[in-house]
Structures are given as structure tokens and as C-alpha cells.
Amino acid sequence: MLTDLAIAPGDVIRAAARISEFVNRTPVLTSRRLNELLGTELFFKCENMQRIGAFKARGAHNAVLALSPEKAARGVLTHSSGNHAAALALAARSRSIDAIIVMPENAPAAKVASVRRLGGEIHFCEPTIDAREATAAALMEERGATLVPPYNDPMVMAGQGTAAMELLEEIPGIDAILAPVGGGGLMAGTATIARYLMPDIQIIATEPEQANDAYLSWAAGALVDADPPNTIADGLRTTLGDKNLPILRAHLDRFVTVSESAIVDAMRLVWEVLKIVIEPSSAVPVAAILEKRVDLANARTGIILTGGNVDLDHLPWQSR
Length: 320
Fold this sequence. Notes:
Rossmann fold; about 15% strand; 2 domains; 10 strands; alpha/beta; single chain; six-stranded mixed beta sheet
């Protein structure tokens, strides 16, 4: 039942009001050339131009700003490979509270630098979900900080959904909306508000073939253990949250996976044509269209470009 889901449209609407003074209303870009190349009219919601360079600023601010003064005073804590970590550090700074961040040892250097610049207190761990969660739990017990998960949290999901809400307000009549899935927070928020604002819209989730646990879980109707993720899309190397799966099952029309080569090609195409920097995770929905995993001919299609935090010394096409 929809009433059993972790968030409702009203949560996204309230999140939009709560965070409006703290995040950017990012632009929506279009390209005649990309429309011709990909066979659909595309509207790119540019969360790569968001504060900290990713949509994660939305969910982190919603969670942090909703804390009581007593909870906020004890600080906040999370585990993240990068974008959520930087987002939480920024949100904590807006309330002048501590942000304790657990990061895997293989987190991209650019994202580690961003967290440090924003004042986050970093604790490194082995690059596994179990290690991240165990380290975070130990620090939470020691410090008394409030855990703000990167995706499996209603306040975070609701904040992430505000990106889609802005897109659909700005571009009426969109036929389909696509976003990538890692832990599922963005897709859960997107699906919740998109289905409410435009009941007939196609809601399509996208994921790398080499990090496909969310797709397998969605198809099975229960969380599925998949092979360890091995994708260039570092922001999607997480496992689907149990609070997110029911929302995806309730609202998604389709879920498709894409190849690594298509992710690289789509990323480069966006760089070359739109003249903007996006990270591999952002390219996954574009790859789904480029690789013809979805048929959106003559449709008006919205895509959430999730972030633009890239290690410029290690661009994926340089190793080809």
C-alpha cells in the first residue's frame, strides 16, 4: 500500500520549502544536437551545478535543518564515498555543528578534498558497506552524533526529490523522467514527486550492469545480493536501501541497466556537446538512451544530471 511507503509527496514539498535558502535552483539545459543524436527532446536538470557539485546537497540539508537544537548540538555523522559526505559537511557548517564522515579508502581524491575543505572530520575505512557501517556505528556510540545515512532515510529521500520537483515545475508536459540508482534515495524522491505531479509520466530508473543490485532487487521484489560493484560510476557502488525498494516498486515504470562503455561514451558526449562537466554516475541515464535500452522517440524527456565531481587527472576516456 502506498500509505506504507517511507515518504509521501508532501514530504518532498515541505523539503523544498525547508532547503530553499540553502541550495541552488539549478538550471535546465537543452541541446538541439543531442536531441537529434538521441532521438528525443531532452531536458537536463543540472545538479552538477548544485552546491558541492551534486544533488546530495538537497537531502543532507533537509535532514540537518530538520534536527532539533538538542540533536544538532551533538553533531551529525555519515558514511559516504564522497558526494553525500561533502553535502553533510556543508549542511553541518550551515548550522555551525560538527560533521563526522566515514569514507572508504578508495574514495576519489577530489571528493576527499571537498570534504576536508568544508570542515568535515574524516575517518577512513575498508571499501566495503560492512566496514563503512561498522565504523560509523562505533563513532556514533562514542560521539553521540545523529546518523544521516546517504540514501536510506526519509528526510534524505525527500530532499533529493526536490530536484525533480523543480524540473517538472519548470518544464511542463514532460513525458518521461530518468535518474540513476545507487542506494535509491534520489530515485525514490524523484518517483514519489513525479508520480504525484504528473500521474501519467514514465518514471525510468537506470543503473550500470556491473553494479546492478537495485535492478535485481526491483525485479525480484526483495533485496538481492549481487556481485561486488565494478563500475566506473563510483557514486553508484552502493547497495539499494530497504526503505527505497518499496517506493521504486510502487512507482517505477521501467528499470534498465547499461554497459561501462556506454557510460563513458555518454559522459564524453555530454562534455563535448553541452560543454559541462558531469561525473560517470550522471551519464548513466544518458547511456540508457544512447544504448537504446529505452525507446523515447519523439518524447519530452527529463534527465537528472546528478553531479560533476570528477578527478580531472583520471578521465575515463584517457585510458582507452
